[in-house]
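Following up on my earlier thread - several people asked me to post the actual chain instead of describing it. Fair enough. Here it is, all 226 residues.
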Amino acid sequence: MQKIADNIWIFDGEPVSFLACPFTTRMTVVRLFSGDLWIHSPIKLTTELQQKIQSIGSVKYIVAPNHLHHLFIADWHNAFPKSSLFGTSEVIKKRQDIAFHFSLNDEHDWPWKPEITQELVLGSKLMQEAVFFHKSSKVLILTDFIENFPKSNFNWWQCILASIAGIIAPNGKTPLDWRISFNKRRLREHLIKIKSWNPEIIVMAHGDIVDVNGGDFLEKSFSWLD
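Reply from S.P.:
Thanks for posting it. Predicted structure:
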């Protein structure tokens, strides 16, 4: 449990295996003015974690920002049955066993809108992801849109794969397969919106966070679009 700004915490969870590599996991929690908690990409829920969460607020909103970040959604909703579930259309289609309350693809008057703005990144057949920005702290919250792993996370051959994918810190970026799949014109339109938020801190679900000069990191991370 690490507080990175007023009313924002990150929690690092257990690694999960993805493409034969250990992917670290991270959850971001925002406490809204109401005291309600907004949970982004929830990690494995333990008794200790549940106690920590309950010590800072009441879980109200649980967000699955893309179709790869869904493993623990049901467990969290079972533990906090008064919460509402939000996911992209891809994750809702993938997890038909879960009764999501809202799709992040729809136009909606999001209850967190006064404090958190968002952009649904489209233009790829492989992935769509909702990215979020906490206005007062200037924290940009991502999952796989950028990955930024330290080399120490991998063994030698995994490090080679991660380098090819372009996801090694401090030069992390969108993974190679997703970069290739994008309609670049459409992605540039999304980036104009995201950059206009002027983020100072960038939290990613996988790898090192960027705690200073977030705008500069974004420029470098998406230089492949030039």
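Residues 27 and 157 are 27 Å apart (CA to CA). That should answer part of your original question.
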